Prior knowledge:
By secondary structure, the protein is mainly alpha-helical. 74% of the residues lie in helices and 0% in strands.
Amino acid sequence: MAADTTDFDEFYNATHRRVLHQMYAMTGNLADAQECTQEAYARAWQRWKTVSQASSPEAWIRTVAWRIAASRWRKAKNGVTALVKHGVPDHSPSPDPDHVALVTALKQIPESQRQAIVLHHLVGMSVDDIATETGTPSGTIKARLSRGRAALAHLLTDTGDAAGLPAGGEAS
C-alpha cells in the first residue's frame, strides 16, 4: 500500500497543475475546474491499481474530469429547462407560529424529557413502548413526561397580558 501511496503522490504532484489548467481552459470557471479535477483524482485514487496501469493515467484523469464537468452542465441545463417549462416552484408556506414556539420550547427542556415528550405526544408511542425502546423503566418515562409537560407548560404560557402584568402574570 505504501508503494501505491508513493506512486499516486508522485503522479499527482507531476500532473495536477497541468490537468487543472486544462480543465480551467475547457470549463472557463476556476472553481468548477478545481472541483472536477479534485473529484477525478479522488476517483483515480480509489482505482489506482487499475488507473496506474492505463496507457496514460493523466488522460484517464482528464477524461473523468471532463465527464464530471459535462454531467454538471447537463444537470444545470435540465434544471433551467424544468424552470422554463414548469415555472418557479411555489413557495412553501411560512411555518405555523405555534409549531415554531413548540420546537423552541422543546429545545429548552432536558434531552431525556424532550425524547419522552416527542415519542409519546408526537409519535404516539405508549409509555411501555418508549421504555422498551430507550431501555428505561416505565416509571422513569412517566416522570420524564410529567416534568417535561410542566416545563413546556411554563415555556409555552404567555407571560403577562394586555394589562401590562410582568412576567409570571402577577402584579407587583
